[in-house]
């Protein structure tokens, strides 16, 4: 009997990883991607122990990931008259011993290409230049349609099509993404002298503004400057050349210390994008179609959990699919209902809490006014100086999602 065909919409970060797991469990996944080819756009992602643990369940993949293990958290105030260290913590250097994995900075297009190649090496078909626009459910199958008129049919469909998911619109109707009120301006630059031999995840706090930076390979640092601003679209395209030059020379971080000025001056390209999330959905599926990753729970980036939560989704999705459909034969709608509803019962509360947490972290980072900032910086200091307040949330973040042994 031919293996059960599954259509995945979207070959971003989640799509190829889900495809590989489905293949390993005996299904026949086909991935349809809107872009004509793998994108070179985007800056960086921070893979954390919970996400890396899922990646490592795929034989031979983690070894291929090019990135930089981070070994500290550094937080500085960059305000004139109040410059200096708020916190230096070596916690990230202990994560590998505690949870088996560290935090790893990666360049998004480099990581993306590694995932795509690994999926192709598993024989998974990726069809580029196909934007899903319709979903027709039948008793034992789903037919999807694309803007170019093409159609295809499979046993079930998983929408991994990101923030502007059409799969989500097909299931639950159109609704605008929520603009968080914050933009990021960012780039990738050579490692500044300031970093020397250390590899910290660094936060710089200004007045109503914030910069984060971390290494994404042995010689490159990705940075992003956050502020409150009028809405900017999420396109990941470079800013106009003269606007980039203005930002390098006279932008708000051109006077900042702790490596910031150098990073901005030497960036290859500077990108600006708005930060968006969406309200919680009551369900992530209808019939034979389910959502996963940003399509289900897009988040602002301030907890660095976007990609990691997509990997947790995949872990549970696959675990539950194997549990309810051990033969990998074409599942009935009842079997899929059991898989999808258990999946969303586990995943919706967890991802909603993190989406809200990221919103709050973002707002805290762009506080304005001397008193508010001082209070915030004191709270950060207190929090980080008390071992007991940091250990437990990290333990929960990194270990809570997994059921017994992490095998699936
Ligand atoms: C070009 C790009 C650059 C990014 N850069 C960063 C970054 O620098 N930092 C960061 O924190 N996050 C970035 N993100 C978002 C980040 O990848 C996700 O938040 C996270 O990794 C979850 O992955 P995902 O697969 O759910 O979504 P995504 O990685 O966004 O992948 C969704 C994929 O679906 C495709 N797609 C969309 N609509 C359709 C459709 N109708 N039919 C078929 N395919 C469709 C998209 O082209 C994309 O490839 C970027 C996303 C994109 C698309
Ligand atoms: C780090 O990134 C730079 C720029 O993309 C690249 O030239 C260099 O080869 C990379 N290093 C590794 C080890 O991949």
How would you characterize the overall build of this protein?
The chain is globular and about 70 Å long. By secondary structure, it is an alpha/beta fold. The chain has eleven helices and 19 strands. Helices cover 36% and strands 25% of the residues. The strands form four sheets. It has a seven-stranded mixed β-sheet. Helix 1 packs parallel to helix 8 and helix 2 packs across helix 8. It has a single domain, classed as FAD/NAD(P)-binding domain (3-Layer(bba) Sandwich). The structure holds flavin-adenine dinucleotide (FAD) and 2-acetamido-2-deoxy-beta-D-glucopyranose. Residues 9-15, 32-35, 39, 41-45, 108, 131-132, 160-162, 164, 166, 236, 293-295, 301, 306-307, 310 line the site of flavin-adenine dinucleotide.
What is the number of helices?
11
At CATH level 2, the architecture is 3-Layer(bba) Sandwich
Number of domains: 1
End-to-end gap: 24 Å
The top-level CATH class is: Alpha Beta
Work out the helicity level: 25-40%
Oligomer: single chain
In total, the number of strands is 19
Order of helices and strands: EHEEHEEEHEHEEEEEHEEEEHHEEEHHHH
Query: Beta fraction of the residues?
Result: 25-35%
Q: Provide the residue-averaged pLDDT.
A: 95
The name of the CATH superfamily reads FAD/NAD(P)-binding domain
**Biggest sheet, in brief?**
7 strands, mixed
Domain FAD-binding: 4-331
Keywords: FAD, Flavoprotein, Monooxygenase, Oxidoreductase
Protein name: FAD-binding domain-containing protein
GO molecular function: FAD binding; monooxygenase activity
